[in-house]
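Build the 3D complex.
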Amino acid sequence: MIISSMIVTTETGKAEDIALQLKRIPNVTTHGVYKGDNIIVVMEAEKEEDLVNLSRYIMNEYPDVIGTFPAFISSDEE
Amino acid sequence: MSISRRNFLKASAITAAAAIIGVEPLHKSSVLAAVVQEGVTWHKTVCRLCGVGCGVMLGVKDGKPFGIKGDKENTINKGILCVKGFYLNKMITAKNRLLHPLIRKNGKLVRASWDEAMDLVASKFKEVIEKYGPDALAYYGSGQGQTEETYLANRLFKGYIGTNNVEGNPRLCMASAVGGYTSSFGADEPIGTYADIDHCNLFLIIGSNTAEAHPVLFDRLVQRKKDNPNCKFIFIDPRKTPTNKIVDLHLQVKPGYDLAVMNAIAHQLIKDGNIDEQFIKENVNFSDGKDPITFDDYKRFLEKYTPEYAAEQAGINAADIVKAARMFGESPTAMSMWCMGVNQRVAGVFLNNLIHNIHLLTGKLGKPGCDSFSLTGQPNACGGVREGGALSHLLPGHRAVANEKHREEIAKIWKTSPDKIKPAPGKHTIAMFTAIAKGEIKGLYVLCTNPAQSLPNLNKYRKGMEDCFMVVSEAFHPTQTTELADVVLPVAFWGEKEGVYGCTERRSQHLAKALNPPGEARWDGDVLIDLAKRMGYEKGFSHFTKAEDVWNEYLLTTAGTDMDLTGATYERLKQVRGFTWPVPTTNHNGTWHRFTPEDPLFPKDKAGNRRMYFYAKPDGKAVIFVRPDKGPEEPVSDDYPVALTTGRILEQWHTMTMTGQVPELVRSAPVPYVELNPEDAKAWDVKNKDKVKISTKRGSLIIEAKVIDRTRRGTIFIPWHWPESLTNILTIDAVDPGSFEPEYKVAACKVEKA
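Done.
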């Protein structure tokens, strides 16, 4: 299992709403909105590329998202 | 408390993200994250990819790469990384790292020892010199090589072998920006820095998909807009891109027809009175490109460039040009930013001049929030190649080979005879590869770049590379270029060697060596010194034992110049996040705005009360140039009725030599594609994912269609990254007559359903 995190930045005033929508994506959890428009998103996935795919998906599917910036990735296998 | 590894990692993931934003997450997360990272040493370095210059921390555990994180202390990215930079550690451990030297025997590349490979290169090069003279050899380098590596190659080829056939891939991406800066302001590289972004209210982005090509810089622009709701963005580009998300006004021009628009903006600025007469009087000369002219002459030239005329040329609305001019003119501050869409054009230097013109007219230069700011594509094109003087007409420290005094100064530092450095410029990149194709250049040394994929009009040049004796110094194999080589030398990659990169904003930053190179790979600098010695130049190179020795000599070439780096010693660079030159002493901390009183080189005696003094120009005045509109070299025609433009996507970089090693990135866009406007696709009976055949006068490519509302009608776009689908078979190799940079951005093509 891969565990990764990213910051999702949104248009001003849209972050709370986007965070709620992101929670509906399987294996995705959000961990608060910080400094206005930055959402911390953690994803658990089978494959590493899912982080990139999620990043592109969020950019394409949510017009109010302005940027996605990966922060961490690792495997839970020792 | 029993905590699973999974929970450790989740905590670490949250902590890493929180750290980038600059907030403290739950205390528990921080504690758990610290446990996960036990035994990891983090090394301060700089991203290996684009020219933004993001600070990166490379984590090493047990001698292996552990991970990557953004450098929070770095002023450029403040901890943020894009998706490409985030996977740098995976590039280090890629499966196709080259571990041993290879030489071609009986048509195949086979493993060889270093001695065998280097003796072969040295003897072949010496043989070429003896038979055909030094100009039958050439060096082709990169804006990705470290400054020390590029400096050594430049020194060897120009100062010892005796040829100015020294080029690098920045010729293909930034040469027009160099031409624009040197002609308009007298000296290369921007006046301001990224710090201006935080003071700017009006951004003009032209020919740059910043959101995908420079995503971290884009985030800084986004933050500026959020912090200041009055901040506006004008975008001049043939495509709608993710950059449009922050754009207030988009002038979606026909590819190759934006010069008229820039002249029309100048026309409108003058008409509206939105110019700074005092600044112009004190700081500006006017020129028709050959002779001085007056401001009135310039105004007469601009009479033709009404918004209506320019709108017709560019296929946009005249009212939008007027609006753009007023937004620019009425804003107290303004920054222009551009990239390949401006530079990779046969009128690239002209277009650069026209951007500078509107800043000079309005005095929006040399003060917080104002600059005419070229973005760069590679991490060390500015530092290693432009500043290092590693193009065929240059010498280090913004010097020219044609200048006798400059040759003497550099020969003294290089410990060689001034006569060894030829006064005539060598062949620029396209001329060089033309000479290779003709068999006039017999031997070529390629360092850290992939011309067999990146040159325009590729079919014309690949055979020549195959036929000449080509040495490729590379960390990865195969690439399109190593496959054609006679010798392939395995070299250290990012993180495995020490050096300096100089990024877009004149900032030089130190890159730490955190790992040992794999297999028999060696530092490029070591290989070049070895080659010099084997060719008989031992005396001139034996004093270099490490990268710092090379940097220290390089600093001597910058002393007293407009790009003085004397104060940027390794000792200091290791402690800080770089310096923006000039930084002339070890107690100086770098310069924000050049040509202003804060610049240590500002000549107060000459400048008097002037706010700026362009000291690289004889009378301290910059130049507004008359530059007529000039369309593309290859306009659309009955046979080729569609405009082709090329560019980049977020997850890939250049020829995928590095990003192609990361499956996570590759799978995000696994198939080469062409973007088609939905209306065009309908007219051509093409649906999403259909195969289409794209043809130009130079070749054809069959590629998957992506029907998407991005290009304007009559224009298609192909990202050029994939080696299995060589986009540059289609592109044109016509060059700008001033910069010799090819016009990758516009060609005429036809589209057929395959």
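Helices of chain A lie at 15-22, 49-61.
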